[in-house]
Design brief:
This protein has nine helices and ten strands. The protein is an alpha/beta fold. It has one domain: Rossmann fold (3-Layer(aba) Sandwich), CATH 3.40.50. The chain has a six-stranded mixed β-sheet, sandwiched between helices. Strands 2-1-4-5 form a four-stranded antiparallel β-sheet. Adenosine-5'-triphosphate binds near residues 11, 13, 20 and 46.
Length: about 240
């Protein structure tokens, strides 16, 4: 579903070129939940934005269901949730959803039904007519998760989706991610909450300074390294 080959991205900081994503390659199979984990500044958000087509690679290729990232065909297949979701503050939750549904040219009656289902699913049924400026952080996350699903995406790209959620919210989100997987969707998400990743991912990659330094199913990684995922995470980063 998602193939990344030799992806490299450089940025300029104070007139100096820094490599943020460094020759990264990975494959996410259809129906997988794939977790990209790494410390602050590892390059997770940059990678996720490249996949979503919001940034363009310096080098390398990204293909989504056979289409290059950033093309309209690829964008139609994805749902994207930003790291710090922000919306037009004067809009109500329903209006935000309608706005995005419109961008995807979803027919009005279909959109209305879908919006109701999604807002209920993410726990915002009672906030449907509430302006986004009155939302808490967790409510923003929930709305962003609903927005990301409006077009029934084949690939969900989520940047720290569990960030800022309380334990109940985290549990809800994990269940929703697994439900999406069950319905055939593929999920590519970044996180630094290792326990969450361990619970729901089929495969994880540890990213450090833009490079993958370990990859595999959480079970296999734990088994082969004889360490918990947290120990493996800390050790591989310290030794890299
Ligand atoms: N637009 C930009 N211009 C210059 N440097 C940038 C830009 N965006 C990101 N960077 C740099 O790229 C590096 C990786 O940033 P990125 O946001 O991808 O990390 P991250 O793994 O998502 O971190 P976090 O866990 O804190 O969200 C950082 O050193 C950051 O300063
Ligand atoms: Mg980030």
């Amino acid at each position: 579903m998602l193939v990344i080959r030799n992806l490299t991205k450089q940025f300029y900081q104070r007139n100096e070129e820094i490599t943020v994503v460094d020759n990264l390659s990975l494959t996410v199979k259809k129906g997988q939940v794939f977790g990209l984990i790494g410390p602050n500044g590892a390059g997770k958000t940059t990678t996720v934005k490249l996949v979503a087509g919001l940034l363009f690679p310096g080098k390398g290729k990204i293909s989504i269901g056979g289409f290059p990232a950033g093309t309209l065909e690829a964008k139609r297949k994805i749902g994207f949730m930003n790291e710090n979701p922000q919306f037009y503050y004067h809009l109500k939750a329903r209006e935000v959803m309608e706005f995005v549904a419109d961008l995807f040219e979803i027919e009005k009656t279909v959109a209305t039904k879908k919006i109701d289902v999604l807002l209920k699913e993410v726990g915002l049924k009672d906030a449907k007519e509430l302006a986004v400026r009155k939302f808490s952080k967790g409510m923003h996350q929930r709305l962003a998760f609903a927005v990301a699903q409006i077009n029934n995406p084949e690939l969900l790209i989520l940047d720290e989706p569990l960030d800022g959620l309380d334990p109940l919210g985290r549990l809800d989100f994990k269940q929703m991610i697994l439900k999406l997987k069950k319905s055939g969707a593929t999920i590519f998400f970044s996180s630094h909450i290792l326990s969450d990743v361990e619970e729901i991912c089929d495969e994880v990659a540890i990213l450090h300074k833009g490079k993958i330094i370990a990859q595999g199913s959480p079970k296999d990684l734990v088994k082969s390294s004889k360490q918990s995922l947290e120990e493996l995470f800390v050790r591989s980063i310290r030794n890299a």
